[in-house]
Write a structure and sequence with these properties.
- A hairpin with a 6-residue loop joins strand 3 (56-64) and strand 4.
- The chain is globular, with a radius of gyration of 15 Å.
- The chain has helices at 14-22, 32-41, 88-102, 117-125, and strands at residues 5-8, 46-50, 56-64, 71-79, 107-112, 129-130, 136-139, 142-145, 156-161.
- The chain folds into two domains: 1-105, 3-Layer(aba) Sandwich (Aminopeptidase), CATH 3.40.630.30; 106-163, Aminopeptidase, CATH 3.40.630.
- Helix 1 (14-22) packs across helix 2.
- The longest helix is centred in the middle third of the chain and has 15 residues, at 88-102.
- It is of the alpha+beta class.
- Coenzyme A binds at residues 24, 27, 76-79, 84-90, 112, 116, 118-119, 121-122, 125.
């Protein structure tokens, strides 16, 4: 990890984040304004990872719930394809979990799509557990929360308890 540096996002990072996100299907690409909001108002819980040349090669956008500060959420996590399988996403998630622990969070949640096998394997390795809500439907052999994000948008909900 010496060649790589994880730091909190700053507002100026939002276009770099948008650029990276476009290269990371099957993850859904957001409007640029969403990246701008995270880098302006959720900097404590939004991270980027830079190569030694300072180029951003991955990011994690997350937040702590205003309604229940014990709950954290990972909105988007992405590492550029050439830098995958080097432990960078793991580093981003571990840093994020450390921040959440310091802020007194007890749980962290995320959702992913049943077809995103890479993300499923990754989060399983990171010891997230399935925590689906409501009616379940099996998609591609994976149990999901039916219509979680709207009609036909079945999602897998994952949660990790923080020590
Ligand atoms: C999922 C993603 C973030 C993983 O990033 P990464 O930097 O390659 O992951 P890491 O190298 O940190 O891997 C950490 C662990 O997960 C495992 N893992 C990562 N990708 C995997 C894959 N495709 N299949 C199986 N295991 C995988 C690694 O083997 C590693 O385990 P180890 O510590 O025992 O070696 C990356 O593939 C990505 O950006 N995908 C597109 C966007 C996306 O789907 N994001 C997640 C949903 S928001």
């Amino acid at each position: 990890m010496n060649k790589y540096n994880i730091r909190n996002a700053v507002e100026e990072d939002f276009l770099s984040i948008a650029e990276i996100a476009a290269y990371c299907p099957p993850m859904v690409t957001e409007r640029n304004s969403i990246y701008h909001i995270f880098t302006k108002f959720f900097r404590t819980t939004s991270l980027v990872i830079e190569h030694e040349n300072k180029k951003i090669i991955g990011f994690l956008l997350g937040f702590i719930s205003q309604d229940d500060p014990q709950e954290g959420y990972i909105h988007l996590l992405c590492v550029m394809p050439p830098w995958r399988n080097k432990g960078l996403a793991k580093g981003l998630v571990e840093e994020f979990l450390d921040i959440l622990r310091k802020e007194g969070c007890q749980r962290v949640h995320l959702i992913t799509s049943p077809g995103n096998k890479k993300a499923l394997s990754f989060y399983e390795k990171m010891e997230f557990k399935i925590s689906n809500e409501g009616e379940e439907i099996v998609i591609n052999g994976v149990k999901t929360s039916k219509n979680y994000n709207g009609p036909g948008e079945h999602k897998l909900i994952c949660t990790k308890l923080l020590d």
